[in-house]
Design brief:
There is one protein chain. Helices cover 23% and strands 21% of the residues. It has helices spanning 22-31, 82-88, 92-98, 105-118, 179-182, 199-203, 215-227, 259-266, 270-276, 289-301, 405-408, 418-430, 450-453, and strands at residues 13-18, 40-44, 122-124, 126-134, 139-147, 153-166, 170-172, 189-191, 208-211, 235-238, 311-314, 317-325, 329-336, 342-347, 349-352, 356-358, 398-400. Helix 1 (22-31) packs across helix 12 (418-430) and helix 7 (215-227) runs parallel beside helix 10.
């Protein structure tokens, strides 16, 4: 392994990362293998690594193959691969015989924690408060607060760096009508990100409603259904989408999660990108076909006694408003999109599988705001190397991870592109090519403009021939 010790406090880092999720953990692992070494530091306000702990439901798996680990798709020989993790645990042969291409989420979480235990330069319990550009030193200043075990401020610090990478991830999204209830601790309105911590409380409720048509909603509904007695399930599953639809998982459909498509999407006009993204929801917001089959199997099993389960699955429904009834009931005011009808549903508990949104960067980047270029919608402009586009005098680069959905498309949060993006960032940062990347990754040709759709180093001879009218 190649690595460089962290510099002294008054010496600059080559790269400071903000946030330690899978994306920045991937970057930290690959940066550790750059020949000659890079001085890096990564800061995370949480006390330890955790990946969606509220959704590590027993038996649930990743929706991407195990090759979408932190490093393999950029460096299969890396010591931080999932296979290296298995070897360190003497589990290679059991994994070999298990013949699993999609690993369990809990195992992926354990793998990432294993990497955190060994990688240098990871600082948990450190909350980054602000970043700014120091024009005299030509460096970024990163102000942080070191937190104690209770999350209280313990000490203040500052780091200097030539470059930054933002990997602050996403945060749970709660629809407006349900926010007052979700904020009330006595009311069991729980976002799915906190599902496991509240599972027993939910199961004790007389009636449960799950809202959301994605994979998380399906997994929560299935887990609750399996735990409820036959004939008295008392559970509703509501969704805005017109159907509980399967995720697009055909092999050519998956090519939307390749570097080729990412480059194609980035080169499209802003208005075209904004119009295209909502139409691609089934690429990443649908439900795994296996999960849908398991739900149907469980429901069918409960009809064997001659009756139907007390479970209601209704798509095409929006929650207009919500409130409390008496002291314990929750009343949802519903509207069916196609029928134009309205109804009320009284329930004892609600699980909001309503997804996540990118964390806003405005507060963190307030010190850089005068230099930050924005698009017509006020979002940061991001170039094809995952860098924020900044005006002079900022000569350092600020890279982003999983904050470029509007510029790089549906693959931005996908684990399968994490290692490639990290390698691309390191190639750009070093000005060399410590990680040679593939010139072509998809059979699909996503555009007719060949020069626009290919990376600069890709020979035109490798592109498919097309006719131009």
């Amino acid at each position: 392994m190649t690595g460089t010790p962290a510099p002294e406090p008054d010496q600059p880092h080559d790269l400071v990362g903000i946030g330690i999720g899978p994306c920045n953990l991937s970057l930290a692992a690959l940066a550790h293998g750059v020949p000659g070494g890079l001085a890096t530091a990564f800061y995370e306000r949480r006390r330890a690594f955790s990946w969606h702990p509220g959704l590590l439901i027993e038996g649930t798996t990743l929706q991407v193959p195990f090759l979408a680990d932190l490093v393999t798709l950029a460096d299969p020989a890396s010591p931080w691969s999932f296979l290296s993790y298995l070897r360190s645990r003497d589990r290679l042969f059991p994994f070999y015989f298990a013949e699993r291409f999609h690993i369990q989420r809990a195992e992926y979480d354990a793998y990432c924690r294993w990497a955190c235990d060994s990688l240098p330069g990871l600082h948990f319990g450190h909350q980054v408060d602000a970043v700014r550009w120091n024009t005299e030193r030509n460096l970024f200043e990163v102000d942080f607060t070191q937190l104690d075990a209770d999350g209280e401020a313990e000490a203040l610090g500052r780091a200097y760096s030539r470059h930054l990478v933002l990997g602050v991830g996403t945060e749970p999204y709660v629809p407006g009508p349900l926010r007052p209830l979700a904020d009330a601790p006595a009311v069991p309105v729980i976002h799915s990100s906190d599902y496991l911590a509240n599972r027993e409380r939910l199961l004790a409720a007389g009636h449960i409603t799950v809202i959301g048509s994605g994979q998380s909603g399906a997994e929560v509904f299935l887990d609750l259904l399996r735990a409820r007695p036959t004939g008295v399930e008392k559970i509703h599953w509501l969704a805005r989408t017109e159907a509980f639809a399967p995720m697009e998982y055909s092999k050519l459909g998956l090519e939307h999660f390749t570097p080729d498509y990412t480059r194609y999407f980035h080169a499209l006009p802003e208005q075209t990108r904004d119009a295209l993204l909502p139409r691609q929801w089934q690429l990443h917001k649908g439900i795994d076909a296996g999960t849908l089959a398991a739900i149907h199997d469980e429901l069918y099993r409960r009809t064997l006694n001659g009756s139907w389960p007390d479970a209601v699955l209704t798509p095409g429904v929006t929650v207009r408003t919500a409130g409390r009834v008496a002291t314990s009931k929750i009343e949802l005011h519903l509207e069916h999109c196609q029928q134009g009808t309205r109804s009320r549903l009284a329930t004892d508990a609600v699980v909001l599988a309503t997804g996540y949104r990118e964390r806003p960067l405005d507060r963190l980047l307030a010190g850089l705001d005068p230099c930050l270029r924005r698009d017509a919608s006020g979002r940061p402009r991001i170039d094809d190397r995952f860098r924020l586009i900044l005006d002079p005098p900022v000569s350092g680069s600020v890279y982003v991870q999983n904050a470029e959905h509007h510029t790089h498309g549906v693959g931005a949060p996908d684990l399968g592109l994490a290692a490639w993006r990290s390698a691309s960032i390191l190639n750009s940062l070093t000005g060399t090519e410590p990680y040679p990347l593939p010139q072509r990754t998809a059979f699909t040709s996503f555009g007719l403009n060949r020069e626009q759709a290919r990376p600069a180093h890709m020979p035109a001879s490798l592109l498919p021939l097309v006719e131009h009218s």
